[in-house]
Amino acid sequence: MKSPTPTVSDIDELLSYLPVLYENESEPIPRWHDGDKIDAAALLFGPEYDKVVKQFFNAAAKECWCDYDYDPGNVGKMIRDPHKIAHATLPEIKSMLTWCVRGERFIGGHWSAVIEDGNIRDILLRLQDLRPK
């Protein structure tokens, strides 16, 4: 299945988060839950993300950014190589964003790691370069 191509508006939506995610060295995870009781039948584990972080990843999860055929292993290697990110194509950006979005399903705190490691910043800077004028 192929996803639609992101529009300039879709690109601008993601780019609007660049200054917000990286201003004042804010913490993406203000709080971790280590089995906090929600009610008598449920416990909560994992990170409690800042509202802006959740909004960014919701925007990055839109269908236009989804690569249904991405290979997590290959994209994981690509995202650890700043040179590859700096020269990525739009389809590669989509693969990297898919990897970033979906990683939280498997590793609690993944979103925080890709923000703090600068991966999201580097992806957004490359997306800024690719944005049609």
Mean pLDDT: 88
How does the overall form come out from the CA principal axes? globular
How much helix, percentage-wise, in residues?
Answer: 40-55%
Question: How many structurally independent domains?
Answer: 1
How many angstroms separate the termini?
29 Å
Biggest sheet details: 2 strands, antiparallel
- Total beta strands: 2
Query: What integer value in Å does the Rg equal?
Result: 15 Å
Q: What's the total helix number? A: 8
Task: Provide structural commentary.
The chain has helices at residues 8-15, 18-21, 51-60, 72-79, 82-86, 90-103, 110-116, 119-130; strands at 31-39, 42-48. The chain has one domain (8-130). A two-stranded antiparallel ribbon has the order 1-2. The model has no long low-confidence stretch (mean pLDDT 88). The relative contact order is 0.19. With 133 residues, the chain is an alpha+beta fold. 51% of the residues lie in helices and 12% in strands.
Sequence-ordered SSE layout with sheet pairings:
Layout: H1 8-15, H2 18-21, E1 31-39, E2 42-48, H3 51-60, H4 72-79, H5 82-86, H6 90-103, H7 110-116, H8 119-130
Antiparallel strand pairs: 1-2
Task: Give a quick set of tags describing it.
133 residues; alpha+beta; two-stranded antiparallel sheet; 2 strands
